[in-house]
Structures are given as C-alpha cells and as structure tokens.
Amino acid sequence: MKKKRPLKIAYLDCFSGISGDMCLGALVDAGAPLKEIEKRLAKLPVKGYSLASRKVSRCGLPATKVDVMLTVKGRKEGARKWEDIARIIETSALPESIKRDGEKIFRTLFRAEARVHGLPLNKIHLHELGAVDCLVDIFGTLIGLNLLGIDAVYSSSLNLGSGTVKTEHGILPVPAPAAAELLKGLPVYSSGIPLELTTPTGAAIVKTLAMGFGNIPHFVIETAGTGAGSRDLPEQPNVLRILIGEALKGSLPEAVTVIETNIDDMSPQVFEYLAERLFREGALDVFLTPITMKKMRPAVKLSVVCDHEKKDRMIDLILTETTSIGVRYYETSRVTMQRQVKEVKTKHGIIRIKISGFGDSPARFTPEYDDCRRAAEKTGIPLLEIMKEAEAAAKKSL
After folding, report:
1. pTM of this prediction?
2. I need a surface site. Which of 56, 186, 187, 256 has the fewest CB within 10 A?
C-alpha cells in the first residue's frame, strides 16, 4: 500500500465560543492569506462586500479580526431562501469539495430553522443571519482550511455563554431556539459569561466539519492562530484558537454514535431485512450479540454504529421495523485503518480487494467475498483458492 503523507489536523479550541468571523480570523492568523481567500471567494456569484483584517487585543491577548464590509448593494441583499443559497453554491466556480461542504453547512442551518418554526425547508429565510456575510464567513472558512491543507477538523466542547439574545421573536435565553437545535448531539457547557458566545453560524460550521469533540487529539502542533470575536470581555479573551499540525501514525479518531436495543420477542428472520435497510441508509456497522435478560429469557442485543447525523434515521428504522419499544445510544470514537478498494485481474475474472494499512505497518489484503463466490460458482474452483489467488494478485500489483 502506497505510503500516504501524514494527515494535517485543525483543532478548534472553543473555550470562548465560536462564530463565523472568529473562524475566518483564526485561519488568517494561522497563515491563510486573506487576499487569496478574497480572490477565491470571487468564484461565488455574490457581490456587495469586501474583507478587512486587523490586529486587535482581547483581554490583553493579540488576535486577528476579519470583518465582512458590506456595500449598499450588500445590505440590500437581505435574507435568502434555501433555493437561493443552493443556486449560488451550485453555479459557483469553487472546487466541488468546498461546494459540497458549504451546501452541508447551509442545509444544517436551514433545517434547524425549519424545525424551530415548524415549516418546510423551502419556506425558511435565515432571518438572524445576513445573506452576504453568512456566505462569506462560511465559504471563507472552507477556503482558508483548504489553503492550509487541512485534512480533518476536531473541536473542543463549545462554550455557549449565557444570558439573553435579541431575535426576531423578541428577547430569548441563550441558546436561542435555532442555536439549540443546531447544538443537538454536541458537547456544550456555559462558563456563565452573559453573552451568546456560540452563534448559529459557528455551531453549523463545527457541527458539519468536526470529526470529533473533546481533548486535543494525538498530533504534532506546527502552528496556531487566534481569531477575535466582536467583544472585548473582562472575564476572558473573546477569541477562537486554532491549532494546526500533523497526525501521528497517519490515523485519527472518528466520532460515531452507537445505538443499542434488546429484543426477545421477534422472529430472527427480520434481522436480515433490518440490517440491509440500516446499511442502505448509511449505517457503518450492524451486529447482533446473544444476551440473557431478566427471568433468564434469551434475547439479542442489536447494535448499530453510525455517523452522528444519521442517528435519528437509524432510531426511526429500529423502532418501526422491529418489536423494540425503546433504544439507548451514546457518542464514542473509533480509529480505523486507511483503506482503499482496488480491482485486480485474475485468471478467473476481476476481483475487488480491500487494502488496509496503519502508519508504517504492513498492508492487509481482503478479497471481496461476493466477487470470489461468483468466480467459485462459475469455475467450480474452491472458494479459498480463488481468495488466495486474488490476494496474491493484489500484492503483486503494488
């Protein structure tokens, strides 16, 4: 397996919250050229703004503040619907990976607003967010990460602040309804500072991009940046710190959700159908464990591993497709080998091979069972022999 370069990590230290302009400021402070960010932002069909960067002090700590300066045209843009944002992203000349991540962030924002207001996605305006500066903050952040060569983003727990915030619905407690919806599934706390420290834009960015939350991951720090918020607080610096460096051993922890339920009153045949549905909907793993429940009843524990954003869909499938009357779930992390699937040519046909590796350890080769089985049934050659031949062909091709 070809040795890959070490993965580059960005760790967001949200001890004083996170917002779009803080993300942008931290990336510029860490070395992302503002002029290049602005140049690439021009690939979005959005006008009426310019970017300005300045050094500021927050509670005596130097930081970079990046502001989106709106022209008269920019101020007239107002709120946009989902279809407007989607059209802007789709017609832009940005790289597909940036367009895809930007679309995910905005879809997350719109879905949160839709749930809070009880309306369909296409009826929602982002009232609390200016259309132009929101687009610039989000896509400027994605471009900055790309310029710095970031492969994976991790984050600390999010400091929400406290007190109240002024919204179109009046004065509401922190976090406001849309922010609270966005923050579902994320580790949060409040240090008691009477201010909204984590904004909806910041929450949507970190929810979409972060592969995991918690302590600083195992990596070698190369550089750091500090992005300033708009307030100079007396209690602590209103800043977002970003730490950037290379992962050790070429592997990173990945945040996942594990869903479990115990079932003792269902035909075992249903599990095959259920597993197929769960995998089709995006489950990372589905497995069964024999257990003994109260009164010594034999039962099965169903376990499903999935990405955080798939949790609700997985739970819905379990509760509608099984006899379960409830589930439990918890957030955890997993570490997986680097993997790739390659097709190799054998005298019995094309066989797919999964090649796995971890750091400098020898690669592992796993032939695709279905391909080998088809070849065995067609030729009459033992399955194990075909699997060995496919593995040998894969090793020879590297």
Report:
1. 0.69
2. 187
